[in-house]
Amino acid sequence: MGSRLKIFVRGLAVAACTGLVLPGVALAVTGTYNGMTPQGNTCRQNLTSPCAVRIRVVRNFVKASPSDILWHARCRSGGALTGDSRPHGRLKKGRLDVRTVLSSHGTTPDGSAISVRETVTILLAINGRQATGTLVARDTLFSGSTVIDYCATGRIAFVARR
Questions:
Q1: Domain for residue 12, yes or no?
Q2: Which end of the chain has the least Cβ crowding within 10 Å, N or C?
Q3: Is residue 145 part of a domain?
Q4: Residue 49 vs residue 62, higher pLDDT
Q5: Residue 60 phi/psi, 5° resolution?
Q6: Are 137 and 123 in contact (CB under 8 A)?
């Protein structure tokens, strides 16, 4: 009889533990969140849409495509840049922190060769039907090894809803 009681208690303990664990398991986040940054329509100068935010999440993974955050940066020379960042990665506890450094090369309208070093930091949190976050983009423009301009967005906070 004593061994039966032990088996019963062990089975009860496993069932109780399972019952306690299951309600705490978070369901995987899936959905598309859409919104706009406070920069509004300033992205229309060079892009065909306003400074929009679109975040696509599938089973707790932020997909690079079609996720997109459009932004506008002011330059010290008085010019401006518009850009597009595509955050991606696994959500950890509903959050994603991404820091990307990119380099690209191109030419100016007068044919001069330039290169750009861009650093973009995106912090994203998803809570239910809402995604909130911040974006900071900094660009350094070079002609050869000479810095010709600096551009930055400042801290842009955004909200997107499902």
A1: no
A2: N
A3: yes
A4: 62
A5: 65, 20
A6: no
- Number of structural domains in the chain: 1
Does residue 5 lie in a domain region? Answer: no
Number of other CB atoms surrounding residue 148 within 10 Å: 16
Whether 51 maps to a domain, the answer reads yes
Per-residue DSSP letter, 126:
E
84 CB-side CA count, 13 A = 15
Dist CA 83 CA 69 (whole Å): 8
DSSP tag of 111: S
pLDDT tens-digit series, residues 5-55? 433 334 433 333 443 443 444 567 899 999 988 887 777 665 556 788 999
Residue type for position 89: G
Residue written as tokens 């004593």? 2
How does DSSP classify residue 42? G
pLDDT at 131 over 50: yes
Write out the residue range of the structural domain in which residue 151 sits: 27-161
Pairing mode, strands 95-107 and 52-58: unpaired
Cβ-contact 160, 34 below 8 angstroms = yes
- Could you tell me the sign of the dihedral formed by the alpha carbons of 15, 18, 24, 28, in that order? negative
